[in-house]
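User: Can you predict the 3D structure for this chain?
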Amino acid sequence: MPLFPLGTVLFPGLVLPLHVFESRYRQLVRDLLAKPEPREFGVIAIRHGRETGIDGVSDVYDVGCTAEIRQVEAFDDGRYALVTVGMRRFRLLGLADPRPYLEADVELLDDVEGDQTAAALAVRPVQQAFLDYLSALAEQRGATYEAPELPDEPILLSYLVAAAIVVDMADKQRLLAAPDAARRLAADRELLSREIRMLRALPTTPAPELRYSPYSPN
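Assistant: Here is the predicted structure, written as structure tokens:
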């Protein structure tokens, strides 16, 4: 599977716009567009290194998410603007030489609830904790928000919260790598509780819109 290392964690169901300008990733897009749909590649978070430049990526995490290309805009100078959607988690089994871009043998990971009783019991507490988190975030930033309608399905909820909570990449990666929804929901709730305590301890500062879209300059 071709890989697109990024300084962000992609979750199943998350929309990820990409601006592709480096020559190796232009080639990746051209190769994908020459194949029949669905056109998928692997997004993997960078542990060490950076997305662009001579030094580039030196280390990546071992769990990523496939991205399916949904929209493509090609520019005259060879750049591409993509709209992709996260599809399925995968585990790296081995990396090939990056010629011209990284490729890997991967194992696709199934999405399962795990302990179904624990997953079902976690839904309401996580929904409430997420709403409390949004409220605390809005209050801290001097903003307003409209309470979203949250899914009751454990797997969907676990990914929605994991994608939306504003934490560092190591925490995001831990959520992506959780083996099932029950354990991801437990980790979601733990992180939400931590972030709520931190937000309520901070002084209030004005800030604009709470919503954001992940974007890579690569």
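The longest helix spans residues 116-141. The two ends are 19 Å apart (CA to CA).
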